[in-house]
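Thread: quick sanity check before group meeting

JM: Hey all, I'm pulling together slides for Thursday and realized we never actually wrote out the predicted structure for the chain we discussed last week. Dropping the sequence here so it's in one place. If anyone has concerns about the input, flag it before I start.
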Amino acid sequence: MKSGFKVMTFHHTPNPEAAQFIMSGDVIARGTRTFSSPENARGDALAEALFNIYGVENVFIKENFVTITKSPVVGWTTLMEPVQNTLEKNMTFYETCDEDQKPESATKNILEEVEVEDFPNLPDKKKMEVIDALLDHAIRPALANDGGGITLLDVKGKVVHVHYQGACGSCPSSTTGTLQYIENFLQNTLSQDLKVEADNASLV
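JM (edit): ok, ran it. Output follows.
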């Protein structure tokens, strides 16, 4: 039985092991869903079916697209047809997202409430709200265009821990150029002392 969704187009991303499948409409109400392993996919028909395809290693859902990250041992020519068929057969609209499981963070006006010179003295929880709002404003839209995303894990003093999603998760540029860009952005915007660390090893 078909899901009603169609794969409209396919895009390669900066990560050679990840590709973005653009669907015929929005597939999630808000936020993102990430499935990082067959165990993590249990109970979700689409994710389970995708992980049954040899070579699929990660599934990232956002807005109107699904980013599939594959193993280097399998080529896209092999995966293209089964992934497309599985998406069109099993895709459903997600009313909830991973972010629903986390405490509500930054409010829309948090950036207006906080003075930059006060940022270093804020408690870590407040720093996290400010940084998350900045990521929403300036970083996440660009990453989404490349089939990826970023989650703010925590802020401990001057160290910001992030987790890359989708195409960004295993992309070499995520741990070099992109990470450096985010660190420079936060340093120039908030505090020169901030350091950004990607914490994907334990989560992918």
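AS: nice. The longest helix spans residues 124-145. Helices lie at 38-41, 45-51, 76-90, 110-113, 124-145, 177-189.
JM: adding both to the slides.
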